[in-house]
Amino acid sequence: MSSDFESYEQDFAVLTAEITGRIGKVPKLVGDEKKQMVANIEKQLEEARELLEQMELEVREIPPQSRGMYSSRMRSYKQEMGKLEADFKRSRIAYSDEVRNELLGDDGNSSENQRAHLLDNTERLERSSRRLEAGYQIAVETEQIGQEMLENLSHDREKIQRARERV
Hints:
Blueprint (H helix, E strand, L loop, with lengths): L1 H24 L5 H31 L2 H41 L4 H58 L1
Main location: membrane
Family: Belongs to the VTI1 family.
Subunit structure: Interacts with distinct SNARE complexes that contain either STX5 or STX6. Interacts with NAPA and, to a lesser extent, with NAPG. Identified in a complex containing STX6, STX12, VAMP4 and VTI1A.
């Protein structure tokens, strides 16, 4: 069982090395080559995610006494995956800025300001989304509590009515 995990580990290592190399090439490429490279990296990242899922399944099958070592490896692989995705995202942002500049004929001076402004707005949107989700969760919980209170009141009403009938 651990041999399957180790096989997945080797595949993951090879794949992440390829992805890292390709991410480094993205800013140097132009046009269709760049588009194709981005598409290939996206496919490889998906493969890496699937490998991580397979590795997690294998870890679940490992006896509890030796699972700790494999779990710590999984955490480091997940961190590595997150770093790769962040690096890819940065290279894609640079890629999209270059494409936009080519289309609009921008000289690139204002693009840094626009990019910073865009990132700031994105961050605000994410914070607002999190607040909305928290508010929605509170509303759902409040609704559930209200429903429980109504059920309790209904039961109490029935008890009171039965008591009145007996009296």
